[in-house]
Design a protein that fits this description.
Strand order of the largest sheet: 1-2
Distance between the termini: 49 Å
CATH class: Mainly Alpha
Oligomer: single chain
Number of helices: 4
Number of strands: 2
Mean pLDDT: 86
Order of helices and strands: HHEEHH
Number of domains: 1
Strand content: 5-15%
Length: 210
């Protein structure tokens, strides 16, 4: 911190600055605490969603294996080709403690037979089940992608806020406190010197009979 003249005005300025910085650091800590609570909550959701997706993929894969054994690979490939489609995802921003966090709007990828435009009589049950499992897994995957994008953004902000808090608590505030102490000592010394001069002046006046 750049040193200035040890005046009472500077002393009061630094006391005020110390209060403002301390209060700002307290707000940063509150923000970081809220973001960390959100962060760990999202982690728990991600773990739960990944477990659900793993189960759906495993179920779908079992259905595919059985379908291949019963109907042959060509039947599955034909169904997969007919079921191809494009999926559009919308990314929006959610504000959490002043932080804009990306979020993918939820969309249902799971289709009914009508939406597939296929006949339940013509299609094999195991193939339909496999398709349903993988589409539900796709729904979960979109949710996971949204949660992990939020985790990435929250993690960046938490790291940045932690660096700011460390800088304020370990560098800025100690520097301000040291300077306040220096000015306090300088002012006290100045007051002692002034009191000593006043005393000497009075003694001289008394000696001279003034």
């Amino acid at each position: 911190m750049e040193k200035s003249a040890p005046t009472r005005q500077q002393f009061l300025f630094l006391k005020g600055r110390h209060y403002v910085v301390s209060r700002g650091m307290g707000l940063l800590k509150s923000k970081r605490e809220a973001l960390m609570k959100e962060f760990f909550g999202v982690i728990e959701e991600c773990v739960r969603l990944r477990q659900a997706m793993t189960g759906l993929i495993a179920s779908g894969q079992r259905s595919v294996t059985l379908a291949e054994a019963l109907y042959g690979t060509k039947a599955i490939e034909s169904f997969a080709h007919a079921s191809r489609r494009e999926v559009s995802l919308e990314i929006k921003l959610k504000n959490i403690w002043g932080v804009n966090v990306p979020e993918i709007a939820e969309v249902s990828l799971t289709r009914t037979l009508e939406a597939r435009d296929t006949s339940p009589v013509m299609e094999r049950p195991l193939v339909l089940k496999a398709a349903g499992d993988f589409e539900r897994a796709g729904d979960v995957l979109v949710k996971i992608a949204s949660k992990e994008a939020r985790l990435t953004r929250l993690g960046e902000v938490i790291k940045a806020d932690t660096r700011k808090i460390n800088a304020l608590s370990e560098v800025v505030l100690p520097s301000i406190r040291r300077r306040i102490k220096e000015i306090e000592r300088a002012l006290e010394e100045r007051e002692r010197e002034e009191a000593f001069r006043q005393k000497r002046f009075k003694e001289k006046r008394s000696a001279m009979g003034w």
